[in-house]
Structure formats: C-alpha cells, structure tokens
C-alpha cells in the first residue's frame, strides 16, 4: 500500500514537471513570437511616422511653389524676377528655371544637373533624385513645378534641399544605432542616408545587402517588385550569414521614393531574449516575494499583518497620487508648450503667405517673439525645478537698492494688471533699503507671487503689494523684510493649502477655471526662499481672495557705503540709457559657432552694436585664427561650447596656454545653450570670463561689450 502511494505521488510529480516544462516551452515560444511581432510593428509604425513627416514637408513646399506660380502667372512675365526676389526673402532656396532658354539667364547661376533633367522632362511636377550640385558641391535633391506664361514661355519653379539637413530631420535609427533608415528610389539607389557616424557610408544601393547566393530568388524578386511599386511591408534576408530585416513604406508627393529601415536580425533577437530573461527573472522574483510574504503572513500575528497591509495600501495610494500629479503636470506642460509652438508655427506660415504685406509680416514677427519668450520661460521653469531638486541652484551676492528693485517689478506687473482690468497698489516702508542678495532670484520670487495673484483675480478685482522691514533680534548687519501680496481672486481650498508649495500640484479650483499653469511656480519660489533662508506662507478663502506672505533675510549694507552705492546705481542707470551712443566700430570680436543658422542669428544681432565680427566654425579654427593674428587684433571672443573637431572648453584652454601677450587677458565669453549651474561652472573652470545662455539677450550683450570694450572698463590683466 505504501509502495503504491509512493508510485502515485511520483507519477503526479512527473506529470506536474512535464506540464511545467511544456507550459514553459509554450510560454517562451509565445513570448518570443509576440516580441518579434511587436518589434516589426514598432519599426513599421516609426517608419510610417517618418514618411508622414516628410510627406507633410514636401506637400507644404509644393503648395508654396503653387502659390508662387499663381502670382507669376497673374503678373507681368517681364517682371517675374522682381516677384521671385520678394519670395526669396522668405524662401531663398527657390529658383525659376526658364525652359529652352536657361543659357540666356547669364546673371542667374543654375545647377547643371537640374537644367539637364528639366530640359528632358514632361512632368508637371515631381522630385528630382539626389545629386552633387554643380553650384555648391553639396549633395542635394529638388522638387519642381512647371509654369506656363501667357507668352507661351515655359519655366520651372525649383526648390533645393540639402540631403544633410533632410537626414538630420528624417533619418531614423533603431537598437542603439545598429539599424538605420535610408531614403531610396524605386531602383533601390540611396537618395538620403543616415547622418549618424556608425551608419554604412559606402552603401549605394539597398539591394547590395541581399545576396542571390544566400537567398531565394523568388523572394528577392518579390521584394524588388514591392520596392519598385512603392508598397509598404517588411522582409528578411541573409547577408554573409547574418539575417537582415527590411521595413519599408513609399512616400507620396510625386517622389517615387521609399523610406527603408535595415536592422540586423540578431539585434532584434538579442533584445527579445533580454526582455524574455528579464520577464522570467521578474516572474521568479514575484514568486519568491509571494512565497516570502506567505511565510511572513503565517509567522506574525494577524494584527501586525493587517497593519503591514494598511501601510502598503497607503504607500500605493501615495505613489498612485504622485504618478497622477506628475501625469497631470506632463499634460499641462504639453499643453503649455504646444500653445506657443502653435503660435510660432502658425504665424510663420502666415508670414510666408503674406510676404508682400509688411504690416502683416511685422504683426506675425511680434507674435512669434511673444510666443518664443513664453516658451523660454517654461524651459527656465523646468531648469529651475531640476536645479532645486538636485540641490545645484547657486545664489549670487550683489549690491541691491531694494526700493528700486521693487519699483522695477511693480512697474512691470502694473502693465499686466492693467491688461487684466485690475487695480494695483504698492506700499513700501523700509529703514534700510541697501542690501546684499541675488537680485535675479528676488525678482523671480516676487514676480511668481504677483503673477499668480493677477492670473487668478477676475476683472475688476484688486491686488495690493506691501513691503515692510520688521523689528528683529538678528545681528545689526542683517534684517527681516516682509513682503505680502493680497488679492481679491478666486481663493484656494483649505485642504489644498498644505500641498500648494509642492511640485506639479494645482488646486482643482484653478484647473476647472481653465487658467494655464504647470504647477511648478510656487514650488520654485519656495525652493529659492529655502536657499535664501526665507519663508513663505499663505492664507486664503474661496471666492474672497488670498494673501501670500514672504519673509526675506537680507544682509544690510553698511551706512557709510550707502551714499556711494546710490551714486554707483545712478552711473549704471545712466550708462544703460546711453548704450546706443557707445561706439564699438573700432573693436573686433571673434564669433565661434558651429551651426550655420545660429551663426547667422548671432552675427546679425551682435552686429547691431557696430562691432566688427570675424567667424570660426569650431574650436580648432578659433585657436588658429587667434594664433596667426597679431596681439590685440581681437578685443573679445564669443565662444560656443558644443562643437565638432574641438569644443569651446578645450579651445579656451589652448588659447589661455598660448605664448602671446593677450592670450591670458582677452575676454572669452561662453555663448551656449548649456544653461545649468554645472555648465556655468565648467565654463569658468576652463578659463572663460562669463557665461551667456542662448537664446541671445541683447541687453546682456550690451552690458558685456560695455564691461570689456569701453576704455573706462578695461578687462583684468589676467583671469588666471
């Protein structure tokens, strides 16, 4: 009997082990199959998005050609050059090719390859394959549309694209740059290849990756036929013993091109195996955790188990609440970022269509400027949030006249209050108005609080600002300054007051009001005050208003220095007012920037000061120019940071190390999109004098030039 029982138990265990093995095998195969399908679907969807993006750009540009075509046809054909000149202000890459009479256009240089193609073309519109431009030597491709003049003269409107720029916009990479995408024609010839350094630069035809000796001919023919017919799909072939997966989709817009992505099969399999391993490992960990929890459950008292369960539930609720808050923040941020982006893109499109209407163009540019500044403020908020969260925000110490700072902030916010149809009052009672602190961050705190008061106060309401100096027990050189902002706005719910200074939090009352906001302004304000040693509090009642109270702790300037400080402030203010009279025409600066468009913008803006500008497109060129020119040739250098060949840090170090009299004294100013505290510190450590964050603020540029290029403000003998 006992032996029979043992046999039964053994049989049951054997069956269970067999079932476990079979189920594991089926599970692994099923997961592998699903991961493979998911990988192909992901690649196909990504390619589809890339195709749509390129189609939209080409169709938009065809619409522009159509618009120009209509203007030319309606106008006098003898004046088409004037019409084209007006359009070239907005669209410099569009030219008019006169058919059968191109050689008579002696004053206009045309791409010979384009001329040759158009002379033999019967198409009304289309896309010309990529080629080397006879004018620039760059690889380009073109779109064209035929124009018929009333005098039976025929021409083509042609827009040129640089394949390098298109590659940066539309080339897709997969699996850590092991897979790349190419724009090819229906014969498989590559028109635009990936700009990434790891891509295959020698590959000229996509079919070169398919060996007839290693693959079935009927599959190759079917793939080539799909490519020729501009279909959508995917296929797998062997290339020197290695599987290669091809995903492809045809473009519209009269191009006869496709977007083709090529990814090694082993990379997809490796990723699938990694995911499968992590899944199994995760399931194993889950099983272990479940078993451990079960053992723990039976090892402790039921009451302790209940307490533990309650704590877990609370933690899950807090985590879920935090995730919801962050999700709401992302949604708000997406909305707030897309709003100015929509303005910028929309006004740009209108400006293109209204290129002959100067007043409309000016209106569009003004709205683009406002939207751009709003977008920059959102970016700055996120950067401030990141710096506060990581503890890397740095405060500066400077001499401040507090009454002047308050007046500056109040004057600025009065305009906003007037637009919102609010009354606005300021009351200041100070004994010591000369302090030491970070004026930028103080203004940021005040503006954030006042801006909220204006934003959440309906028209006809009132905003009151008060600043008083409190009696305190601090040392004589320190004082407590209390700032309060009272409004008659919509108020804040009492149960929200404890969370109002947390990141990503917004009161439901404010979200229902439809007022835009990301929920980080007050959190940033509190973070800055914590760094300053100050405090902030709020009292509020729904539908009656709120009062925010801030206590600053400032170091007071010594009494004997106050009069001197006033004079200094007067001199600085007068200098700012007279900046346009400063003459920098005899000064020469070196502008170092690798991006052509950024160089053009910087040259145009800085050039308004009258200073002479010479250009370098990387750090190596900058060092060479500074080295070969005589001492004192350059008076100042604006240096970008991230550049090819040699970055701005290394270029600065090499300049400072040169055996030239002015190498250690010439002012070198970082002009970079890297705007975090670490970036500023790295710039100073490399030997630069100051750091300016992009986008360029001309007020700051004027101050830099005044500080370093006027005779009364000579740079130090050496910064080292």
What would you say about this model in short?
It contains 18 helices and 22 strands.
Question: Mind explaining what this structure looks like?
Answer:
- It contains 18 helices and 22 strands.
- The protein is globular and about 90 Å long.
- Residues 102-107, 509-514, 560-578 and 712-720 have low confidence and may be disordered.
- The termini are far apart.
- By secondary structure, it is α+β, with helices and mostly antiparallel strands.
- It has helices at residues 2-74, 80-88, 112-119, 163-170, 217-228, 265-299, 302-353, 358-390, 402-419, 439-455, 508-512, 521-532, 559-577, 596-607, 619-628, 648-656, 677-686, 698-709, and strands at residues 94-98, 125-132, 139-148, 154-162, 173-174, 179-185, 190-192, 233-239, 242-250, 257-264, 398-401, 423-429, 434-437, 462-470, 478-487, 535-541, 545-556, 588-592, 612-616, 636-639, 668-672, 690-693.
- Helix 7 (302-353) runs antiparallel to helix 8 (358-390) and helix 8 packs across helix 12 (521-532).
- A hairpin with a 4-residue loop joins strand 6 (179-185) and strand 7.
- The protein is 49% helix and 20% strand.
- Strands 11, 12, 13, 14, 15, 16 and 17 form a seven-stranded mixed β-sheet that branches. Strands 5, 6, 7, 8, 9 and 10 form a six-stranded antiparallel β-sheet that branches.
